[in-house]
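Re: flavin-adenine dinucleotide structure - here you go.
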Amino acid sequence: MNIAIIGSGLTGSLAAISLAKAGCRIDLYERLSDEELIDRDRTYAITHSSRKILQKIGIWSYLESHLVPFKYLNVIDYELNKKFEFLINDLSISDQKYSAVGWIAEHKNIMLSILDIISDIENINKIPTSVIPNTNKYELIIAADGSKSNTKKKLKTPSLNFNYNQMCITSKVLLRGVKSNEAYEILNSEGPFAVLPLGGDLFQIICSQTLEKGNFNMSLSKALFLDYLSTILPLGVEVDTIIDQPKSFPINFILNYSFFSGKYLYLGETAHKFHPVGGQGLNLCWRDVDCLTRLVSTPLLKNNYSIIPFIYSLSRLVDVLSISLLTDSLVRYSRSNFNIFCIPRRLIFLVLRKSAFTRKLILNIMTNGL
Ligand SMILES: Cc1cc2nc3c(=O)[nH]c(=O)nc-3n(C[C@H](O)[C@H](O)[C@H](O)COP(=O)(O)OP(=O)(O)OC[C@H]3O[C@@H](n4cnc5c(N)ncnc54)[C@H](O)[C@@H]3O)c2cc1C
């Protein structure tokens, strides 16, 4: 099958590898150079669903050395002043043997490895342009050109869009008082924030807050920003140094009403973009890739490729919708007016602290999707 992929971000690139390994001929269109693709300062939480996909494609061993495993995921509700932990025991038996609740990856490392893998695969042809000269030569065209997709605009595919009126501030810091294999998801009224281990004392802070507060914090000097971080980190955790210049990006919600248009199929952030809480973004994108690869490899569909976009769209519905609801609920939970929602909030937290079954259920949805 001849497939064009527009966009060589982490979704488009993994789709190229996975589909090429399934026997397809891939033309991978990207307007940026490899250097520009690598040079992004992002940090991803990688779940077991991604681990399984990378193993299936046969590239887990190349990437694993760039990932920092964490064994504890502490969830703290600042308004309730309560905490519980997701532990390895909360995972399914088959996931437990990897001794990690999840992994943290820096964009530069995994993008570089993935581009290296692509350069070794014969049936991937990289084309450094944003325009496909002849769309007729492809049975499928995959739009993986990101949340501002031009392809989607051109095809006039409608989507549900809204703004959280929040921004995300990210920064690398050296911390004391945290184990190098523990991560935090902290829920407070400004918005959720995460502390992710990057090895040793180095951690990534991903902090969402109102635009007003975020803009103010972005205008602070490093020393004052460090003081601010000290006020929001959990008790006993202290910031030694801020390693880089804090960066910010707006947070919005995008969900396409359809994941295809004719022979065009939308993958990754072209189809869905959610709040970064819970670290679902990239994992959901890679589950899109896995689903498409399974369909393309199905013997019955190999000669009926025109129905693949429709079946793909149906197959991804439950997983994408459930993650959109889960992440959106977490944001609303975190920002809910504590005075009004005090009782349900106490109840939800109590259930999660006391019920191993509920913890396992939530962690397994977050780690493997539906
Ligand atoms: C500023 C920012 C920060 C983020 N930080 C985090 C984070 O900390 N943690 C996390 O888990 N997730 C984060 N995300 C989300 C995460 O980056 C995505 O989930 C992940 O990169 C998968 O994206 P993608 O490949 O679908 O899209 P993208 O990474 O956006 O890739 C799309 C690619 O398509 C290319 N392209 C666009 N138009 C064309 C065209 N016309 N022709 C050819 N190529 C084209 C672009 O150059 C780009 O390379 C962040 C996203 C953004 C925008």
